[in-house]
């Protein structure tokens, strides 16, 4: 199967792959109501300088990673690799596979070589994923499954905006951060299993030179993207072993790729995450995907950097960012109505990527799209049906 191959969503969703009319209306109204108010309450002015609110006692200057990312045509754009991201789509999609995952014989394993695979799961929290060793890249991988397509609308309808205090770290370096309560509960349900699996991988695969940190890549789609964000931060800052003295559990996040992730925490969390991982993180968004628009900014949430946005090619044009062409608007409108025409059911081809400005809420990227009610755009990333392993 080629990375560009398309799998049909089949009958996993309602006709057209859209939210039901009632669900689409709820999310469209919520997004429309939230935009002007979120603009006024935002840690940055949507029309002004793209700067996050500074923490008390910090300088007034943007952190180095943000200063380097304000111009999307400089370092950020040059370091983003679409071929590597395409590969990560399949590794994220493999977390959905019921068959062949532990033996790495799954449909979405797709020619990659991963050994030492441990599958982790929490049925009560509906979380599943795997830890393994990527033989082709000489690094550990932690991948989280997202919400199954058949239950996505229920998950969105029941998603609340409750914050929780995340006490992460140990001893004098312990931090308290504000993140989504449900995402934190789900992550903590599998955290110990992930750390134990990483310890097993490290025992066999850790680079021998100087006992260096274990290189780790994390990935996930949808809910899995939120959990990958939490895992990436904790592993980068504190590793997977909080014991006394020199730790054998040191980790280095060499890359974090999330696809269609919801917002995970507040603006302070987004900034703290950016300080640690903005230059190693690619938060991929796609056109009118509904999930990155929740929880809304009005409720105190802010996306982590660094976003890479894929619009949809305009009908009849060769590419470029969508400006709201009639054909694309018509197909999106049919989708939101639950339409069954070929234009609403088909996979819509992505335009070239835009590396966004590094604030997490760039209005020229996903945050500026005219509507966020598409499930189809959530299920397809880099023209691949990311959660279709079991159909």
Question: What is this structure's SSE topology?
Answer:
Layout lengths: L20 H21 L22 H6 L5 H5 L2 H12 L20 E9 L4 E8 L4 E6 L7 H7 L4 E6 L6 E6 H25 L8 E8 L1 H16 L12 E9 L7 H11 L3 E6 L20 E6 L13 H11 L5 H4 L4 E6 L20 H4 E2 L2 E2 L6
Parallel strand pairs: 3-6, 6-7, 7-8, 8-9
Antiparallel strand pairs: 1-2, 2-3, 4-5, 9-10, 11-12
Widest beta sheet: strand line-up = 1-2-3-6-7-8-9-10
CATH topology: Rossmann fold
For the record, what is the CATH homologous superfamily label?
A: Alpha/Beta hydrolase fold, catalytic domain
- What is the beta-strand fraction? 15-25%
Return the string of H and E elements. HHHHEEEHEEHEHEHEEHHEHEE
CATH class: Alpha Beta
With helices defined by DSSP (H or I, 4 residues minimum), what is the helix count? 11
Distance between the termini: 15 Å
How much is the radius of gyration in Å?
20 Å
Main β sheet profile: 8 strands, mixed
User: How many beta strands in the DSSP annotation?
Assistant: 12
Helix/strand/pairing class, anyone? alpha/beta
Averaging pLDDT over every residue, what do you get? 77
Low-confidence spans: 1-22, 24-62, 315-346
Q: Quickly give the CATH architecture.
A: 3-Layer(aba) Sandwich
Shape: globular
Instruction: Please indicate the count of domains.
Output: 1
Helix content: 25-40%
